[in-house]
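Sequence, C-alpha cells passed on for absentees:
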Amino acid sequence: MCTFAVLNSSGNKVMAKKIQTVEDKLRAIYTLQLIDSSIDKIRTIRGELPLEVRDLEDEIVGLTTRRDNIETELESVETTISDRKNMIVDAKEIIEKYKTQQGNVRNNREFDSLSKEIEFQELEIQLCDKKIKEFKFKIESKKDVLVEAAEKLKEKQDLLDLKNKELDEIISETENEEKILQGKSEKEEKKVDERLLRTYRRIRGGAKNGLAVVPVERGASGGSFISIPPQRQIEIASRKKVIYDEHSGRILIDAEMAEEINADIDKMITKLLKK
C-alpha cells in the first residue's frame, strides 16, 4: 500500500489517497477468500448434519413399521393357535359323544359309521397339534427377529437423539461464528479493489466450492490442478499483475504468499471466535 504527500490550496502538505499495489490487491482478495471459505465450511457442516438427521428419522420410521408388522403377525399366529386349541377341545367333545352313542347302536353299520367319525376327529386333533407346533416354532423365530428389530430401533433412536443434540449445539455455536465472520468479510471487502471484487464475486458465484482465488501448488493451479508453465509461475510470483488460471478462470497467487496469509488468517479467526 503506497501513500504520498501533496500540497493543498494553502501550500500545506497533506496525505493523498492510498494507492494499492498489485501485491496489496492480491493479499486483500486472498484474505477475503479465506474468510469466505471459513463461512462456507460452517454452512456446509450445518447443512450436512440435518441430512444425517433426516436419514436417521426415515430409517427409524422403516424400523418401527417393521417392528409393528412383526408384532401384528405374532398376534395373528397366537390367535390361530388359540383357534386350533379350541378345535381340539371341540373334537374331543365330539369323540366322547360318538363313543357314548356307540354303546346304544342297534347294528354294526351304525357302529362302524360312528367309528369313522371318531377316527376323523382324532385325525383333526393330530393335524391341529402338528399345526400348533409349527406355529409355536414360527413364534419363537419371529420373537428373535422382533428382539433384533427392537434393538436396532433403539440403537438408531439413541443415535438420532445424539445427532439432534449435536445439531442444536452446532446451530447455536455456528450461528454466532458465522455472524462474526460475516462481519469480518464485509470489512475486508472494503479493502479490496472494486473491479477485482466484482471479478471475485463472479468467479466465486460460478464455482461449486466457492473458490475464486487459489495458490499455485507444486507447479499447478489449485483450481484446475493443471501444470502451469515455469515462465507463468515466475510472473505469478513477481506479484506485478493479476493473473488468472486459463482453465478454471480463478485468480492465481504464489504459494509463499498463500502460506503467509493462511497463517495470519488462522490466528485472526481464532482470536475473533474467542471473543
In short: The chain has one domain: 20-274. The helical segments are 22-102, 108-189, 194-206, 230-238, 255-274. Strands lie at 5-7, 13-15, 213-217, 220-221, 243-244, 251-253. The chain has five helices and six strands.
